[in-house]
Design brief:
Layout: H1 8-33, H2 37-56, H3 67-81, H4 86-102, H5 109-133, H6 138-163, E1 167-169, E2 173-177, H7 178-194, H8 203-230, H9 246-250, H10 253-264
Antiparallel strand pairs: 1-2
Length: 271
């Protein structure tokens, strides 16, 4: 491997800052404005994520026959934005996942399985985000799931780097540690309790919800890591300069959002 240039780390750092400076205001603005801007952002992001997942399942290559997969994911996420029942959109997502799993629409049985899982992961995440934002406490609940997911990721990274210790899942993600998991969940509790609006009425319920949603985010992160390790990729793509792929940034959110939507439903809501 060629040695990295002395200023390579600094260049990458500023590239990451520049990318964040462009993308963060777009995301924040869309969350704040709601429909149709938030809907458009989620649908576009879902299509980009499907494109990355299709590439991932072909060891980093994208072929013309992968466009139906991208269209299927984006189409399913589009349905709730058009006023179609969320239940119908979910049923269609599972039907399409089954088509890829059992219909031989990918190069191999294993690739079909990964594609089906990716389709469900992205579609459920997108549908959940649209459902949360369109709810009665949509703005606050959407902000909450974003900041809790960010806290899990950031807290886990910082505590893991400082404390180290036993690995969480060495065969899947060698850098993740149990101390990082604990730090991430504690960070999720802290921000979840500090900003409970639209999600919970008491500190205890906010903390409990934050732990469950934070745990879902960790599982989503590990799932994407397992997929990348299986197909020999470091990043899902180079879509975001300095950051890798969009999937690398929102893998935790794709499971955190469905968990939040489920916990906010009337059958699960607690005081």
């Amino acid at each position: 491997m060629a040695p990295r240039a002395p200023n390579g780390g600094a260049r990458n750092f500023w590239t990451r800052i520049a990318s964040a400076a462009v993308l963060a205001p777009i995301a924040i603005g869309a969350i704040w404005l709601g429909s149709p801007w938030f809907d458009l952002m989620v649908i576009a992001a879902s299509a980009a994520l499907a494109w990355e997942w299709a590439k991932l399942c072909r060891y980093g290559r994208f072929e013309g026959r992968d466009w139906p997969f991208v269209s299927a994911v984006a189409g399913v996420v589009l349905l709730p934005a058009l006023g179609v029942s969320v239940l119908l959109a979910l049923l269609l997502a599972f039907a399409l996942a089954g088509a890829w799993l059992f219909g031989g629409l990918a190069a191999s049985a294993e690739a079909s399985g990964w594609r089906s899982a990716g389709l469900l992961l992205i579609a459920l995440g997108g549908i959940a985000l649209l459902t949360i934002r369109s709810g009665g406490q949509g703005l606050h609940a959407t902000i909450w799931v974003f900041v809790v997911t960010w806290a899990v990721d950031t807290g886990g990274y910082l505590v893991g780097r400082v404390c180290g210790g036993p690995k969480l899942a060495p065969r899947i993600s060698p850098k993740k540690t149990w101390s990082g998991l604990a730090g991430g969940l504690l960070a999720a509790i802290a921000v979840g309790v500090a900003y409970p609006y639209g999600v919970a009425a008491t500190a205890i319920s906010a903390a409990t919800t934050a732990v469950l949603v934070g745990g879902a985010a960790v599982i989503g992160d590990l799932f994407e890591s397992a997929a990348k390790r299986r197909f020999g990729l470091k990043d899902s793509s180079a879509l975001i300069p300095g950051h890798g792929g969009l999937l690398d940034r929102v893998d935790g959110l794709l499971l955190a959002a469905p968990a939040t939507a489920l916990l906010l439903s009337e059958s699960w809501r607690w005081g």
